[in-house]
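Task: sequence design from structure.
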């Protein structure tokens, strides 16, 4: 349910960031070819373009989190308080109630996943994205199978999905913001 709203922001990142990144990436490539010792971190022109792209990415992530917060809260209210919209069976209503918090977490974490994915696609970080997708797609079925083998409750499946989203969100956002955070900590 939440994906279409956040995919729009992901597509926005893929559309609006390349005009910020393409010229500076071409400029950096040209400068590196001309001077192998060229360091873009010491080039004010390159840094101004990269900073503008980073600002756009950060604003898109903020918009995504706000949208996801609203939608995740709205959607999770249904199993938490309005189970009758899902089923008229009171047993089903009682069973879905504890799932609301996991639904909320998974839906909220869709924002940093979708938006960061769009930013990373715009930055042409395809090998990194593919690695995270392969790792998470390989691990998830094993985790779900283990829950099934042990006869775990449905709430564990939803918790597993929330953890899956947290892993991907951490990887993607870490790739975008990790360097700037580490650089900031270096100067403390």
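Answer:
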């Amino acid at each position: 349910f939440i994906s279409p709203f956040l995919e729009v922001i992901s597509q926005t990142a893929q559309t609006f960031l390349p005009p910020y990144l393409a010229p500076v990436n071409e400029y950096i490539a040209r400068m590196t070819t001309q001077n192998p010792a060229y360091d873009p971190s010491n080039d004010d022109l390159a840094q101004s373009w990269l900073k503008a792209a980073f600002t756009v990415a950060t604003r898109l992530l903020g918009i995504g989190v706000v949208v996801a917060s609203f939608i995740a809260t709205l959607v999770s209210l249904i199993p938490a308080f309005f189970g009758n919209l899902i089923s008229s069976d009171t047993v089903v209503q009682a069973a879905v109630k504890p799932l609301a918090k996991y639904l909320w977490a998974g839906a909220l974490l869709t924002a940093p996943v979708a938006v960061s994915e769009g930013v990373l696609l715009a930055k042409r970080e395809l090998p990194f994205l593919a690695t995270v997708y392969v790792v998470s797609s390989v691990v998830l079925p094993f985790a779900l199978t283990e829950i099934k083998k042990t006869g775990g409750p449905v709430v564990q499946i939803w918790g597993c999905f929330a953890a899956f989203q947290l892993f991907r969100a951490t990887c993607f956002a870490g790739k975008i913001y990790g360097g700037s955070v580490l650089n900031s900590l270096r100067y403390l």
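The chain has seven helices and no strands.
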